[in-house]
Design a protein that fits this description.
The complex is a heterodimer of chains A (717) and B (87).
Chain A: H1 2-52, H2 64-70, H3 72-107, E1 111-116, E2 121-124, H4 144-149, H5 159-166, E3 170-177, E4 180-190, E5 196-205, H6 207-229, E6 233-237, E7 243-246, H7 248-254, H8 258-261, H9 275-288, E8 292-299, E9 305-317, E10 320-330, H10 331-378, H11 382-407, E11 417-419, H12 421-433, E12 439-444, E13 451-453, H13 455-472, E14 478-488, E15 499-507, H14 515-518, H15 536-546, E16 550-556, E17 560-568, E18 590-594, H16 598-610, E19 614-618, H17 621-633, E20 640-644, H18 653-663, E21 669-673, H19 679-682, E22 691-694, H20 699-710
Parallel strand pairs in A: 12-14, 18-19, 18-20, 20-21, 21-22
Antiparallel strand pairs in A: 1-2, 1-5, 3-4, 4-5, 6-7, 6-10, 8-9, 9-10, 11-13, 14-15, 15-17, 16-17
Chain B: E1 2-5, E2 9-13, H1 21-32, H2 34-39, E3 43-48, H3 53-63, E4 67-72, E5 78-83
Parallel strand pairs in B: 2-3
Antiparallel strand pairs in B: 1-2, 3-5, 4-5
Classes of the chains: A alpha+beta (717), B alpha+beta (87).
């Protein structure tokens, strides 16, 4: 039993050892499995922590047991769920934001276009559509250069290139695209690394604004032009009296530049005598704003006194004065103009009277001179001949007087030809000064162009002026005649029009003219001479005005006098003068004489008879037409007619020639009148006449005119 | 770890802990207090003396959609306040 028991115990012990070994092995396996599991958990937790972005687990800080209790995988899983939920919310918010941005961009009243950093279009709003050159379906992905400007903008000027280069917002103003104008702003969008990823271009259509600006600019230019070119002196002054702005007339009159003017105070240009009254008015208008008229003397930069008249008003803003606006006028110029008008009116009334008298005188003189000529031809008695010659001379002086009177006649037209004033001066002056104690010299400046003048009338002007000069120097002296071209750019010498003039200054060294007489020297019948007629200078003045010129006078007592004549420069060249025949040419043919004055008719008939012509007579136009027609019908037509221009109460020369030309288109007619300054006398060809003979006429003049008129006109080649 | 709460603030004092246990602890509290944070205006305040936590915690809660501010206190610890962003 004891042995058996021993064997049994040994067997049990062996089994126990075996079981122990199995259990130990099992335990070892479980420990290894637990370690492996814990490592796995640590590893996965570390991975998850790495995803979150934090450091791995530290075994010293967190032992395995604590780790398992903390349940890090559970925490991180919940965290991920939390993060995903947040991302979903964020994505939703981004979608809402994207839709909001789209709606905002579409609702912007301007074109918006987004480009990537290669300049390719990523998106745009509907306002961009009109700017695209390609169909809209092809736009996305094209560069803005292809889609919008079509390469018309240079590389340097390209806004996208500028944004990429300068890496900041860039603005281009008034960029033109197919007839419209845009202000374009390019703005870069950069990523977190600072690289440009997008460029947003904003196109603001400024066409209307630009047109408004242009219209405003044009309007301003127009008003500035009006302001600058006003003939009045315009100025604006601030309430402290400082000059703000002035126009050209102001600057030219006072001699200041624009810069100089705006550095002045108003009292700098006002004569000291007017300071007190101007200061009172200035203070008054700043208080009550009531416009007033002012007369004052301004001082130019050189100290010249300028009499001005004008109106001043004040601009108020919020009941405070901000500017005084004034328009002044140099009244010396206005006074000159008024004087000119007064003189012209006086000449017109006197001229009307003189013209009527002269016409009757000329008719009478035609009879007197004609009869004297005929009497001289028929009288063998020498004494009688001498008396007749004296009578003839007196008659010619009377003729000269009537010629002067006629110069005043309203509407008198000089018979002009293109001539050189130098030639006329050199012809007239030596003749007038022959036997005088005075000498003369001619001074010219540059080349003197010709003028259109009635040489006879202009010679008379010169003659009158030279005689006056000579008489002003009874002891002799030098008379200087200066001739130059004078250009008038502005209306500076009223009433002359702007243009080029030949200016003739005739200066003497005489006694001069008292200042109170200066304004009257051109008045008819005004004279300071005991034997003067008062017609010399008035005639000269009237002649020059009838030539669209002007005569002025300047004189200082004791310093001499300067008479100045302005004549418009001619656009023609000088024609070659025709030789003048003084002998009365004989001729033949039938001449009809129409004149209401019996004496004139009779004298003309006798003169023409003496020269070899056969004559018929008519007292008015009706009678002349009847006589001319009857002569034609009877087979003895007239070769020419002499028609008096004016027949009081009956048909005169103008109507008669019209009727005669209906009967005979080839009629050869001469117009004759005592109104030798009538426009028809000057432009006789335009009225159908072939010749002209002013009354009174000499036999030589009448014969030459009739002979020239009866010659058939040259046939056209 | 000490916890205290007044009306809207839940305060955790985890001084002595180091990362990542600070982070894991905070994430667990943020996860469990999600509703209160988002809807009741609750702010979780973490007091920590671990410097790494001032970086890891704000970054992690930002990914979850919360705002986190860090303030260094004179007492020698950091106070991290976690709250929902304003609506």
């Amino acid at each position: 039993m004891h042995e058996t028991d021993t064997r049994t115990e040994e067997k049990s012990l062996a089994e126990l050892r075996k079981e122990l070994g199995r259990l130990q092995a099992e335990n070892q396996r479980l420990r290894e499995h637990e370690e492996k599991t814990t490592r796995y958990i640590r590893q996965k937790v570390n991975q998850l922590l790495s995803v979150i972005g934090t450091m791995p687990l530290d075994p010293d800080e967190l032992d395995d047991q604590t780790l398992l209790q903390l349940d890090p995988i559970g925490i991180v899983s919940d965290t991920f769920q939390h993060i995903l939920e947040h991302h979903r919310e964020t994505n939703h918010a981004l979608e809402v934001a994207r839709d909001d941005i789209r709606a905002i961009v579409d609702s912007v009243g301007e074109g918006v276009m987004v480009l990537n950093n290669r300049g390719e279009i990523q998106t745009y709003n509907r306002k961009m559509t009109p700017l695209f050159v390609a169909p809209e379906s092809e736009i996305t992905g094209q560069t803005c250069r292809q889609a919008v400007c079509d390469g018309a903008t240079g590389e340097e000027a390209c806004l996208f290139n500028q944004v990429m280069k300068r890496r900041k917002s860039v603005r281009t103003r008034s960029w033109e695209c197919r007839g419209r104008f845009y202000d374009v702003i390019g703005t870069p969008i950069v990523d977190t690394g600072g690289e440009i990823v997008r460029v947003v271009l904003l196109y603001m259509d400024v066409t209307r604004r630009r047109k408004s600006e242009q219209a405003l600019q044009e309007s301003e230019d127009r008003f500035r032009d009006l302001f600058e070119n006003a003939t009045d002196m315009l100025q604006s002054i601030d309430p402290q009296g400082r000059i703000l702005v002035v126009n050209r007339a102001w600057r030219e009159t006072l001699g200041y530049s624009e810069e100089e003017a705006t550095a002045l105070n108003m009292f700098d240009i006002i004569h000291p005598d007017f300071h007190e009254v101007c200061r009172k008015k200035f203070e008054q208008i700043l208080r009550d704003g009531r416009e007033f008229t002012s007369n004052a003397i301004f001082l130019s930069k050189t100290g010249r006194k300028i009499h001005v008249e004008g109106r001043v008003n004040c601009k108020f803003v919020d009941n405070k004065p901000v500017a005084l606006r004034s328009a002044f006028r140099d009244i010396a110029q206005r006074r000159r103009l008024e004087e000119e008008i007064r003189r012209t009116q006086k000449l017109e009334s006197v001229g009307l009277l003189a013209g009527g008298i002269a016409h009757d005188f000329n008719n009478l003189l035609t009879g007197i001179i004609g009869n004297i000529l005929l009497a001289k031809l028929k009288s063998p008695n020498r004494e009688v001949l001498e008396l007749l010659q004296n009578t003839e001379k007196a008659s010619y002086r009377a003729q000269e007087l009537t010629r002067q009177l006629l110069t005043f006649a309203k509407g008198g037209s000089p018979v002009k030809e293109t001539a050189s004033v130098l030639d006329i001066i050199q012809e007239v002056v030596p003749f007038v000064l022959s036997g005088s104690k005075s000498t003369w010299r001619l001074e010219t400046e540059g080349e003197i162009p010709p003028v259109d003048v009635d040489t006879g009338q202009f010679s008379q002007v010169l003659q009158n002026l030279i005689i006056n000069c000579d008489q002003a120097m009874p002891g002799g002296g030098t008379l200087t005649i200066g001739v130059a071209v004078h250009s008038l750019e502005h209306d500076t010498i009223p009433p002359l029009e702007p243009g080029d003039y030949v200016r003739i200054d005739i200066r003497d060294q005489g006694i001069g003219i008292a200042r109170e007489y200066l304004s009257r020297v051109f008045d008819p019948y005004f004279t300071t001479k005991k034997k003067g007629s008062g017609l010399g200078l008035a005639t000269a003045y009237s002649i020059i005005r009838n030539h669209n010129g002007l005569m002025t006078v300047d004189s200082e007592p004791g310093q001499g006098t300067t008479m100045t004549v302005f004549l418009p420069v001619s656009s023609h060249t000088i024609s070659v003068p025709q030789p003048d025949s003084r002998s009365a040419p004989r001729g033949s043919g039938r001449i009809l004489i129409m004149d209401d004055d019996d004496i004139v008719r009779e004298v003309a008939a006798q003169m023409l008879g003496h020269l070899g012509y056969e004559t018929g007579e008519a007292a008015d136009g009706e009678e002349a037409v009847q006589e001319y027609q009857q002569a034609m019908e009877s087979g003895r037509p007239y070769d020419g007619v002499i028609l008096d221009l004016t027949v009081p109460g009956r048909m005169g020369g103008k109507e008669t020639i019209a009727r005669l030309r209906e009967i005979d288109p080839d009629v050869r007619a001469i117009v004759s009148s005592g109104y030798c300054n009538d426009p028809i006398m000057a432009e006789y060809k335009a009225h159908g006449f072939a010749g002209v003979v002013p009354k009174p006429y000499s036999m030589e003049k009448l014969g030459a005119t009739v002979q020239a008129t009866l010659q058939p006109p040259p046939k056209p080649e | 770890m000490k916890e205290s709460q007044n009306t809207n603030n839940i305060v955790y004092d985890i001084r002595g802990q180091i990362c990542p246990s600070c982070l894991l602890f905070t994430l667990r509290e943020v996860n469990t207090k999600r509703h209160a944070l988002k809807n009741e205006g609750v702010t979780i305040i973490i007091k920590t003396d671990n410097r790494n936590a001032t970086t890891t915690i704000p970054e992690a809660v930002a990914n979850m959609g919360y705002l986190a501010t860090v303030e260094k206190r004179e007492e020698g610890y950091y106070q991290i306040e976690i709250m929902a962003p304003p609506q």
